[in-house]
Batch of 4 targets.
Target 1
Amino acid sequence: MVSNTPPQQRRENPDPHEERNPIPWPLLILVALLVGFGVVYIAYSRIDTPSAWGDGRSRADLEGEVKTAGAAVDGGALYASLCAACHQPTGLGLPGVFPPLAGSEWVAGKDTTAAAIVLHGITGAVTVKGTVYNGAMPAFKAQLSDEQIAAVLSHVRSQWGNSAAAITAATVAQVREQTKARSESFAGDKELPPHD
C-alpha cells in the first residue's frame, strides 16, 4: 500500500498535545498545609502589639515626647524621625536635592526665619552656601507643638559645627501667631527675609 503523505511530512514528529496531568498529591498537601498555617497564624496574631522589627524604639521615642513632668523634648530624636531622611543624619543633605544644615546660613540666621520655615515649609529655589536647591520642605505646624519645633531647631543649630543660640518655645509661638493666616509654604529666596 502506497502512502499519499509526502516524504517531508513523514520525516516530522507528530505535534505535541497537552494531556491531562493531575497536580501531584504531595504538592496539593503542601499547599493545603501552608494555607492552614496562614489561617491559624492570622487568627492567633495580636494586632494591637507594637512590631518587634526595627531598632526597638517606640513612636514616643522617635517623636521626642516628654516622658516625665519637667523633662525636655528630645530635639535629636525629632530630627532623626522627621528630618534625617532628607537632610541626612550628618546634616549634609543630598547634593542637588536637599540642602545641607551643617554650616547653613539659614540655620545660623534669624531664629524667627528658621521657626517660620519649619512651621510653614518652603518650596522653590533656595540658596544655601552658594548653591541653589529647588525642592520642597513640608510644613510641620499641625504636626509639632511649639516646644517640639523649638527643640528640633535648637538641636540643628548646635550640631555639625553650627553654634547658633537655642530657640525658645516662646519664639516659635510668636512666629506661629504672626503667621497664622498663612496657608501655603514660603516661596524660597523670593519670599523669605534675608538670613543674618
Target 2
Amino acid sequence: MNSDLLAPNAFLSPLAIEDAVRRALDEDLGRAGDITSAATIPESAKARAQLVARKSGVLAGLACAAEAFRLIDAAVEFRARKRDGDKIAAREPVAEIAGPARAVLSAERVALNFVTHLSGIATLTAAFVDRVKHTRAKIVCTRKTIPGLRALEKYAVRCGGGMNHRFGLDDAVLIKDNHIAVAGGVAPALERARASVGHLVKIEIEVDSLAQLDVVLKTGLADVALLDNMDPATMKQAVEMAKGKLALEASGGVTLETVAQIAETGIDMISSGALTHSAPALDLALDMEI
C-alpha cells in the first residue's frame, strides 16, 4: 500500500485497508470469479482507465481503490494524480489505471464503492467544518459506523478536517443516560468510573439538564460533559457554568443548518453521527479509454 495516497497526518493502518478490501472482493467475486469479464474479454487484453470525479468534493479512500486493483492483479498500475484529503472538482481525473483488462474490470466496483463512500464522508465533514471555522468548536464523529468499516470511516472524517471521538467501547469511558439510570445517578456513576479506570483513561458523561451538569462539576471527576439535545441558549449557560473546568461536547440533532449556531455558544466539540451514517456517496466513476 502506497502511504503517499493517504491524507497527511491521518493514519490508517495498511492492515485495515487490506482486510476491508479483501473481504469486499471476496464478497463480489464469490465462488466463480468475474464470469462476465472471463467470458467476454481475451486474457491477453490490456486496458487503460481514469478515475474521474463527477461532482466536486473532498477525496478519501484512494488507497482502498488502489488496493482493490493490486489484490486482483499486481500487474495493474495505479497512478494517483490526487491524494486523500484533497479538494477535487467535477470532471477532474484523480487517478490513472492500466493493466490486464480482466483485472481492471473485476476490481472496478469494489474500488469505486470504497472511494465514493469514503469521499462522501470526507465531503460532508468538510461542509460541517466550514460552517464552524469562525469558532473554536471542533467537529467530531461517533460510533455510528457501518460494521467492519469504522477505522476507514473515521479516517475519512479526518480527511474532511474533522476529529475522531472514541473508536470503541474500550478506549474511553462515556457514561450515558442508561448508565446513569442503572448506576443510581450521576455522582455514583462517576465515582465508580473514576475508581475503576487508569489515569490515562478519559471520562465523559452525558447530561440533559443544567442541574445534572452542576452535579458533574461538583464531583470534579469528569473530563468531558456531553450536552445532549440542549438548545443554544441552555448551552451558553452550560459554557458559563463550566468556565474551563472541563470540556463540553454538544450532540443530538446536529445539522448543517444548526451547527454554526451551536458552535457560537462557545462549545468545545460538536459530534454528529450523520457524518458517517448519512453521508451521501460522492460520485466518481471509472472511464475506460477506448
Target 3
Amino acid sequence: MAKFLTGNRLNTEIEDILEKAYLQLILISPYIKLHERYISVLKSKINLPELELTVVFGKNEDDLSKSLKAEDLKFFTEFPNIEIRYEKRLHAKYYANENAALITSMNLYSFSQDNNIEAGILTKSSLLGNLTGGLLTPFTGGDSFEAEAFEYFGRVVQQADLLYKKIPVFESSLMGLKKRYKGSTVVTDKINEFFNKNNKTPDKKEYNRPNSITNSNKPVQTTNGYCIRTGREIPFNTKKPFSDEAYNSWLKFKNEEYPEKYCHFSGEPSNGETSFAKPILKKNWQKARDIHRL
C-alpha cells in the first residue's frame, strides 16, 4: 500500500530505506550532498559486498561538482559493489531497496532535508530485482504502480552515462556452498575524465599566470599560488594549498592523498596528479623550490 509522506516522516523513511538495504540500494537524485545522518547509516553498509549500490545524479553540466560533492563521490567509491552514473536531464528523485521504494520531490541533499517543503510517495512490497541487469521479478504483493515505477527507473539507470563501476570478487568454498569475499575490482573509472571534460575551465588568467615575470631577462618573484581544487589564485602556501572554502570542504575527510585538479605553483590542470600531500606537479617542483625557497 502506498503512503503519502511529508516532513520528518519523509526523512525517516529515506533513512529506513538505507538502513534496510542488504541486497540492493538505488539512489537517484539530481543533487547529492549527504546529510550526516545518511552518511552514518551508509557507513554501516560499506563492508557488505553483496549489497549492490547504484547512484545516479544529474544537472549542472557546466560544474558537476554542484550536483555531486567531491567528498560524497569519494565516499561512494569506497563501496565494494557500486555503479555511479550521470544523466544530464535528470529531475526525478527515487530511492529504493529490495523491499521498498520512494518517489519524492526531495533531493538527497542536506539543505533540502533540513529546510524545504517536500513530499513523497512510499511503496512497500515484495519486489526484488536488479536494475543494472535489467531484471524485474515481482513475486507477491506488488501492484502495477510499483512495478511500473521500478521498471521505469531501471531504464533511467540503463540510459545514464556510466562513470564508475566496481564489482566484488568471490571465491567458492565447501564445494560451492559458501563464497568468500576476496576483494573488489574497478572495471570502469571515467570520473576524472568526465569531470575535467564537463566542468567549466576557470579563466586562464586565474590558473595560468606565471609565478614570475621577466623584465629585461631579470625574474621578479611573486608570492601567488593557486587552489588545487578550484584553480583560483590564493597566497602560495604548501601547507594550505586551498582557498578557504575548498579547505573547509577538505577538512571533512582530511584525505591527504585525495586527487585534486590544479597545480598550486602554476595553476595548470593536474588531472589528479596533485593532492594536499603533493600540491605541486613534479615537473614544476624545482622552479617552485627556487622561487619560493622551499
Target 4
Amino acid sequence: MIGETGMEVQTDVLAMSRSRDNSDHVRHVFEDTSRYLKNRQVDIRFRIDTVATYASDLKRQRVLDIGCGDGSISLQLLRPGCRFTLMDISSSMVTRAKANVPEDFAHAVEVRNENFTSASFGSESFDLVVAVGVMAHVDSPDEFLQKIKGLLQPGGSLILEFTDAYHFVGRTGRFWSRLKELAAPAKYPTNKLSFAQVAKLFERHGLKLVSGFRYSRVPVPGFNILVSHAREYRLMKLLFGDCARNRNARLGNEYICLLTVE
C-alpha cells in the first residue's frame, strides 16, 4: 500500500508545494486564536494526552514545539533542567503561549513569533521536536520534514500529527468542506495528505515510525452544535482509546506519530 500509490501522491504534493507560498494566509487564519482554540478543543485534548504519554519516556532536555499555539501541548512537559523553544507564525498565539509559561520556568522557555520554514537556529539541535496541527499548512511537507530532521540530535524524537485526507472519514469531511466553500471559499488550499505519502516521506528522511495513535472526529456537519466538545471527546475516547491502547484504529484518519532518527 505504501509503494506506487504513495510515490504518486508524494510527487503531486511536492510539485504543488513549490508553486505556492501561503504563509501570510496561514498567519491571518491563526490570528483568530479564540475561534481556532474553541473549534479544536477535542483535537487539542487528544494531542495533549498523546504527547504527554509519548514524551514521558523520552529525553527532552532540549525541546522545540513548531506551531505551538497557546503552548498547552508542550508546556506540560517542562521539567527542571529542560530548555524549550516554542514557535508559532501567529502573534496572537505567541502572546497566549508566553502568558501560559509558568513563572518558575520563564528563564528556560523561549517563545518565537516566526515561520519555522524560514527561521534560523544556528547550531542549535533538539532532543525532541513536537509538530502537531502543522503539516496541512506548510508549503512543502518534504522540506518541512527535511528541516526537522536536520535539527534533531542523533537518537532524537519527533511527535508529528497529520490528517489522512484520503481515508473514508477524510473524504467525507472533504465533501462537506467543498459544499461549505460554495458559500464561503477557503482562505488557502491546505495539503491533502495520505498515510502512504507521509510514510514515504518518513522513509525519505530517515525517520523511523515507533508508534502511532489514530482517531477521528465525527464528520457530520452540526454534530458539535448538538453535542458539546466535552461529550464528543468522551465518546471518541471510548471508541478509540489512547496511544497506549488504540482501539478501532482503522476508523481513524487523524494520526499522531512518534518517530525517531534512524
